[in-house]
Design goal:
Blueprint: H1 2-57, H2 61-67, H3 70-75, H4 78-92, E1 95-108, E2 111-122, E3 125-136, E4 139-148
Antiparallel strand pairs: 1-2, 2-3, 3-4
Length: 153
């Protein structure tokens, strides 16, 4: 009876030792898979920011609105959004240079979101831009946008 108990104890200890070695490898594998996925979503967001700036510089504010996510269009009426970007462009000018500062990916029940923050140099000043994109099968659609700048003009 003691011998059976002793071999059971050794078997459990051996399995625990194997488990201790396996868990870190498993966690590393999961982390690598998740970070690869996050990188893909980050790249989608960065491409969408570049397109946003190209459209912004060309005064294609309605195109930005039309390509935004449905929840964005539901909350922000076209006229208000176009007026917001028109005012920003009047004060800031065209985009000259961007510097990404922060990003994160949130995978929620309501969808996958990539948030990006940029310090942006415009022809007439500098601003901090915050973008949130909703990732979908077609790419990334604008979900939220904010530009913060001091009174320049």
């Amino acid at each position: 009876m003691t011998k059976g108990f002793h071999s059971l104890k050794l078997s459990l200890q051996s399995n625990a030792h194997k488990l201790k070695r396996t868990i870190p490898l498993y966690l590393t594998f999961v982390f690598l898979i998740l970070s690869c996925s996050d990188t893909k979503e980050k790249q989608l967001g960065q491409s969408s920011v570049a397109l946003f700036h190209k459209q912004f510089n060309s005064d294609r504010f309605s195109d930005i609105y039309d390509e935004a996510s449905e929840p964005f269009r539901h909350v922000a009426p076209r006229e208000e959004f176009v007026a917001y970007l028109t005012d920003a462009k009047h004060k800031l000018g065209v985009v000259r240079k961007t510097s990404p500062k922060n990003w994160r990916v949130d995978k929620l029940v309501t969808g996958t979101f990539v948030s990006l923050q940029y310090e942006t140099e415009f022809s007439d000043g500098k601003a901090v831009e915050k973008f949130v994109f909703l990732i979908n099968k077609d790419g990334a659609a604008l979900y939220r946008y904010n530009v913060h700048f001091d009174d320049i003009k």
